[in-house]
Fold:
Amino acid sequence: MIVVGLSSGTSVDGIDVAAAELELTGDTVVFTPLGHLEVPFAPELRTAVLDALPPAPTTLDAVARIDTGLGRAFATAALRGIDDLAGGRADLVASHGQTLFHWVEGDRVHGTLQLGQPAWIAEATGLPVVSDLRARDVAAGGHGAPLASVLDVLLLGDRAARAGGPVAALNLGGIANVTVVGPAGATTAFDTGPANALLDAAVRAATGEHRDTDGRRAARGTVDEHALARLQAEPYYGLRPPKSTGKELFDTGYVDRVLGGRAIALDDLLATLVELTATTVADALRPHGVREVLVSGGGARNPAMVAALERHLAPARLVPISETGLPGDGKEALLFALLGFLTWHGVPSTVPSCTGARAPTIAGRISPGAHPLRLPGPAEPPARLRVGAGAAPPGT
Structure:
């Protein structure tokens, strides 16, 4: 199958689009990326999403408009993916949507809300759409996160065996999440805390810009040790996995609340927030004795963040996820392509030891395309994933 995956993370930077050819061969998913791209949000839609995020009040009017606006934007992005990445032909679209609220109380998740009405995607492309990928795991008692654990476990099991010890995948989006895979198949996964969420919020509040491009401000700043200690005292870091978090906790006013409104020069604040991410990731991984950490996500393009992580993770080796054959910028969208593919084949795509669910679940719901649904018979769950050599998109 050719599957187009769509994703927008907690940073609300734009829609990540990836296409892949997937095939089940015995106990292996052969996964051949066909390319990835990013479709920026219209400024007014991005502003509407950011303005509706907790703790801001919102209305059902705003929610309905955002759901429709995101659905249309994801539909446009899907068409770009089909035409530009898949040679004009695809079989399925898998859309994560945009998380607006992740309802966490203590160590339990009670609900999760992703907007981006899939009917717009199905209508625009004529293809069936798998969406709402987190809710079933939550209904089974899980956190609905990190969903990347299924890809990481299939991808890294053999690598952990070769390394002779645990390896980890680290994704640095708005929130940082890790999956730890042991050589004997033992796995755990969880959100460690903020990655880009607090950095982007600080830059936006001070300058109106979206991010600290290339980490330049953080690199020339100085860590404020007093502020860092206050931020590291957040109770979330002490919770045992499985656990998940989001902008419901690490919102735009979080730093001001924790620091009591104390003023810090922007460059120094960004340096401090980079150090916060690096230390909390390293502290979370240290008990697992990982040999190497494969990093992806927007934060992996921030040299200041990478340098801090290398320092705190040592002696573990920090390497780009591209070493596995997957592109770092496209990993999240490719993940959702995999989830859609597994759902289409009736295969569970969540890992209970990672999300905390009672049992593995088949993720998402399917919106029919222009033709009646004809699903294949259920397949056996795969044991590994092999990245295929970059095939040209069909029709090229």
About this structure: The longest helix spans residues 60-85.
